[in-house]
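Morning - pyridoxal-5'-phosphate inputs below, output right after.
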Amino acid sequence: DISLSPRVSSLKPSKTIAITDQATALVQSGVPVIRLAAGEPDFDTPAVIAEAGMKAIRDGYTKNTPNAGTLELRSAICHKLKEENGISYTPDQILVSNGAKQSLLQAVLAVCSPGDEVIIPAPFWVSYTEMARLADATPVILPTHISEDFLLDPKILESKLSQKSRLLVIGTPSNPAGTVYPRKLLEQIAQIVAAHPRLLVASPHVLSDEIYEHIIYAPATHTSFASLPGMWERTLTVNGFSKAFAMTGWRLGYLAGPKHFVSACGKIQSQATSGACSISQKAGVAALGLGYAGGEAVATMVKAFKERRDYLVQTFGELEGVKISEPQGAFYLFLDFSSYYGTEAEGFGLIKDSSSLCRYLLDKAQVAVVPGDAFGDDTCIRISYAASLSTIQAATDSIKKAMTALK
Ligand code: PLP
């Protein structure tokens, strides 16, 4: 399409959003589709947080805030990062944005030049590769395997680093596989990162997406990359409120890092959106006021997520020909159904890949899930368990029935 810039022409629309919208349209037209495609907690925002937002409106706290976010919120974020993550930042090293998505995009735009390589372990969150493309950079994908719980092999990282490497994106806990990087592995990655010659002069280069940090299942624990020895200078830490605090629609996230880079990201934001929503920022302060790791309110949600995860892992574990890596965090199950590829489904046709399998499941089981190819791994499909246990049970029954019909 010559009427559009090549930057847009090469961009893929978000598949998770597309499938969610398609499922919503089906529901609106009366088809009882169970939606397990979206990455959105099914819980309400905790009442204390919502009340702080309403109070902000009542108090007329409805004007623009500073571009970087209110000092009140940035100070609360610094306190959180120190207490929970062991990383020291001052408020001028924090940039609050309209969601972690904006924080990530601005970081990629601020750091990457055309032709730079952005290293992304697969399976990856759908937006990382497209953000790299928006910056005219090249995504370099590092495959991982379900048999190794989708953890990055440091040797593969080492072999893929080049003079063009600029940024390594690490998401832990990860979307779509719920992978939690153990501290030991992050330390090995840090050593490789520290030894890379170009990255030495062109730091920082690790973009650490920690948006799911609180949604984690013991014994797994979260390590912030910037807290590792020598990594503070090299890391841009992204986090936000959407997932742990069930605040997706409030659009609130943040970036923390060396001031030089945070200011650069702030410059982009000042010309694009200005500061995040004033009301949401008041709500964000209340969220951080809930206590360590979100206190009881977050613990209750995490407990429910764990119960659903356990149910899914056990139930799909009983199904023939499926491979599972038990997710240690987030609220997704990334299931390998590739042993079913090549089968014919009656009245449907050939199941040949993750996309046709997801179309089949939407058609036959009336369950919306996302094909793994959107995340760079066509062997799998992603089931979001941000839905009630009874909904998940109904969906699982349906999927199992549809899959059994294939054999
Ligand atoms: N990072 C990952 C891995 C995500 O899954 C998401 C949301 O789906 C985001 C970042 C963006 O979060 P936000 O809603 O704060 O923009």
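Note: Residues 39, 99-101, 125, 171, 175, 209, 211, 240, 242, 248, 253 surround pyridoxal-5'-phosphate (CB under 6 Å).

O.
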